[in-house]
Sugar ABC transporter substrate-binding protein
Amino acid sequence: MRSQSRRNRAAIATALAGGMLLTACAGAGGSSGGDGESVNVLMVNNPQMVELQRLTADNFTAETGIEVNFTVLPENDVRDKISQDFASQSAQYDVATISNYETPIYARNGWLHELDPFLADDADYNEEDILEPMRLSLTGEDGKTYAQPFYGESSFLMYRKDIFEELGLEMPEQPTWDEVAEFAATVDEERSDMKGICLRGLPGWGELVAPLTTVVNTFGGTWFDEDWNAQLTAPEFVEATEFYVNLVRDHGQSGAAQSGYAECLNNMTQGNTAMWYDATAGAGSLEADGSPVQGDIGYVPAPVKETESSGWLYTWAWGMQKASENTDNAWKFISWASSQGYEELVGETSGWSNVPAGKRASTYENADYQADAEAFYDVTFRAISEAKPDDPGVQPRPAAGIQFVGIPEFTDLGTRVSREISAAIAGQQSVEEALEKAQAAAERVGEGYQD
């Protein structure tokens, strides 16, 4: 494509500029000089990663003699710091948590080590056990592997089985969005203490845009056609967005324009909503010991309209910096932290509900995991297995991605568009007005990729 080098340079410059704004954070604890005794890891501070940090010294270090120097930061901060370090190839960190959004982009820019040689020499790792959609999403345009997953997720619909039974409603094994809207309206009419559904409305490419884009896909829309023409004012995109906005405005939670994943999880946990469409990762919290709704939730695939499936695909994965001179130790850590053995360690020490699942077929065949995740493991496995990042809709796409478009500009574009749609949810403008502004922003991005 024309201007690919220009775009790469711009992406690097943007990443560096963003990184320069950061103040000093937790220290990396030494250099990556390949001394054979340590490895420097930069990762997000979610619960699964904190658990990994807790288990490392007594297990990985005890077994290998390799000390792991962790830098652990909130998601927005860690993304900025990873972009800074990997773009500059400073090699301050050997390994970092990146997602299936960043991996192909970083690989294209030459920021990541190819992992296939390490996989070929690691007979115990069993890469074939990694679920195929996860493997494909962490592959570069050259067909080489550039990251290994720590855990993965898709999306599905969660609903209150007891409320549906009380109201005489029957959830299909594969609901459509039209059926979901009817259910939400019925709950609203019959239950004054409960809203029909909770959907994200909080601005952000990883907040509102994630579920909305899966709705766009299954309604037959797309952000760009295969020639990079922006499609945000096309009939299918407009219909999907109007459906989403009207559904959450008419039957969704109060303050929807400021509700993200955390707020919807809280609404579902506290019994304030009858349905929630979001990440499969939410099930673990809903079914946790002490949850007020434990055992009351049913789980079905993401609702559809024109496609057979519509769940998204996301993973936090381990990528190795290209400039690292500590590659052997870095791979040993990646291999351990994404292995079947690590999942078994977590299951035995912290309970199987805490296992970083969503990546290995063996997890879903494990009787202990099945027992702890009985309510949702099968639906989660099917959602991840059926995800199609290269073909999520009804037409060819110019870039991979289900809930995002796999280009560097999407973080900014998606966030800009989300602000306009969130404003429509808040009643500050119409969907038509929001998408006219969004279309203009998307056109500027698309033009940079056209011949």
